[in-house]
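FIELD: query
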Amino acid sequence: MTIKNFGLDEAGKLSDRFIHFARVEIDDKKEVEIFIKILTKTGDFFYSNEILNNEKTNKIASFCNDLLDDQLVKVKFYKLIPEEQTKILNDAMKFQANHLFRIRDDLISMYEKEKVNKGKLNVIIRNLHHYRKYSIFPDSAMKSYSFLYILNDMCNNHHICNFLKEDDNYINVQIDGGFFFTFWWHNLINYHENMEILHSKLFIRGIAHGDESYLSINLADLFVRAYHRSSMRFQSCEVVDIKYDFKNLPLSVDTFFNKFWDYLGKNIFKKRVLLIGKSELFNLITYILHRKNRQINYEPFIINGNISYFFKRFSSGYPSNNVAIFGDILNDTDENNIKICRDKSIDIFSIKDFQEDFINFFDLIERISESYDTITKKKLKDVIYLKKEYLDNVQEV
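FIELD: result
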């Protein structure tokens, strides 16, 4: 069985000269070797935003090219030029204008009848929340369209289809962001002639905070930042221009914007892990859970403050779709949050409950690193020793 993980992320925003996207492909059997390289480079399992913001471009690009030279990853870049950005922006603004005019009609109707329709009013209030920041709708729609374009390109690739036809092979697509970036996944799969295979063997997930918790997205973030800063350092990589045209896509322009607007105001998630307190291993726990079941992609949320406010903002959902994990409990608020989760029948674990899974993963890293040079092995042993020591000392509640 072979599992391919595809990570997608972007760099840039509307009005930039170019907006770039990276699609990084990783075979599951090569993940540990990639972790070894990241660990020896950064001392941690993922490139943090702090490192990426402060590291020099040539160092990041050099690391990316080392991964490519060692054939540990494959990457394909996509580019959205200003002309295509303008087309998206025009349709987004046109949709918003029409939508606001319809809202005006609803408000006038309530005013004339001197009767408030609470259902319609609640929808209006929810929709107007999109305007808390002027760029949320057009910028997010641009990203969602681009991800759709990229995955449509992937589904048209006969190498991908042949891979999925092999027994026990399947693909995880992990996209940085929430569900609203991938609301079209079902339409996309039904659009292609191999839909039966795609339905059972292609899993597309938008993952909030995925860039620091899933290896594929972390590397997509790494590659696209480096490429956005200096594309000349990746001259051997394939680059595709994104065209804004729904002719060969599974949705019409009206359906796309209507559905995107609707999902932008909803809190939809498949599986969610609620991280309570503090832990050195919180950034790795979602990957550890993913290793236990490759078809589940948890969205990680670090809970700061009273969890009731989090549930009010993002909804609590079904208990079975949530997992609460606590690390070092530092204050009464953390303990109260655990109680609230327990009252909602959410499964609760200590980070220590996954000690065996962590240890097995750490031991695997050390076994594979035996063929590496002495300096690399020493760095890895030092990092892993500290992680194991931390697990031994985690407090129980």
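FIELD: remark
The chain has 16 helices and ten strands.
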